[in-house]
Amino acid sequence: xxxxxxxxxxxxxxxxxxxxxxxxxxxxxxxxxxxxxxxxxxxxxxxxxxxxxxxxxxxxxxxxxxxxxxxxxxxxxxxxxxxx
Length: 84
Known about the structure:
Low-confidence stretches: none
Shape: elongated
Strand content: under 5%
Number of helices: 3
Structural class: mainly alpha
Order of helices and strands: HHH
Largest sheet: none
């Protein structure tokens, strides 16, 4: 992932630098498309397809979808006595 991210990021920055003084809409669309592709690549590669992120989300979301009849303690504590 890291070896392919560097050239993609370099191409995006090159487009930005080359199109900085251009008023043509083609450059603006090219820059927008390349930034969108870079963002999608980063989101997929480092968030969606990352096994550590998947495991962490599964662990964190697992407590939210359990039924209340489970004998496991809840993370929410309820205070029944007013504190002064």
